[in-house]
Amino acid sequence: MTPPAPRATHPGAPATQTPAIDAARAQVPITQDVLTLPRALPPAERINIVGLTRDGLRAALIAAGTPDRQARMRVGQIWQWVYHWGVRDFAQMTNLAKEYRAFLAARFEVALPEVVTRQVSEDGTRKYLLRIAGGHEVETVYIPEDNRGTLCVSSQVGCTLTCSFCHTGTQKLVRNLTAGEIVGQLMVARDDLGEWPEPGAPKDETRLVSNLVLMGMGEPLYNFENVRDAMKVVMDGEGLSLSRRRITLSTSGVVPEIARTAQEIGCLLAVSFHATTDAVRDRLVPINRKWNIDDLLGALRDYPRLSNSERITFEYVMLDGVNDSDDDARRLIRLIRGIPAKINLIPFNEWPGAPYRRSSWERIEAFADIIYKAGYASPIRTPRGEDIMAACGQLKSATERGRKSAAQVAAEAGI
Known about the structure:
Oligomer: single chain
Number of strands: 13
């Protein structure tokens, strides 16, 4: 059993304690470090169809030699085979001429991430460790519930934000995922769940993967174009067909991309908020030093109007003695006033070396009660998959899962 982690600094403590900590904080990356990203993925002999938008697939078919006048029809045919039926072999696409199937097989492929390991929690949660191009690994989690099934998808290998309570944040950013690697996570889950329809069988309206959340490894808005294109594929009504209201993108607060998300994706938005003062949020979510709470809330007030979204979810991890006081709850209510919102309270999911402890259940319930009485929904997220390190904030690829001490993590985060 992991020994209890030391308690974190109380929010009343001064934000700056020593010059050494100031220097460490100044080095915390709060914007995308493009130098850590390879300039190109390993060259591929064939073009992967997975992740191409309809326009992208049409352009690729024409560039490969498909006559322009046929391209739109071919896109529709291929799209249905790949995304509705889940077919990977061009030879099985029987409404295409045999010669054209051979043409496609020579130039294109339908490739998904490789499943390295698959773990199933006692509560039914499934965690997949997936290997992608370059030998990198990411994790994807499927969470079954009574009335829906949610897939938690990664957008980057590692993360650049170094949120001090998040295990993923202790892994350096390696690279952005491609649109195909993002879509591929959903297709891998559907493979494992046996969710592809069978030709000739009665139509089954049950959706085992009914919701998708971009809440896995990485900051989605630091990989905007690939996330956007992947969601275009996922939302297409003739294929994977997930409604934009069934997709939630979670951001730590990349303010310049929030309006763009509303306009170009239009899905639901969640924000990793976690604190009610800049002093505390600077420590928990270092991107706050670039775009503070006022900047973030200003961008969020416009989001429902721009995207026709119903409300914004404020994610708030409950950390013992750090952000869980009655005063914090009342401040949170004042801050979000006027924003259609719900507050999703997340009991902290501990990991080896974590410098925080989970708030007590009594404290979480008292916090939730204050918010509820102010008129906001305040569900407490039931931790899922903790026994397989699949819970919120615990994802980290196995090859990078070094067990840092609490002191190391705290020193790196400037706590």
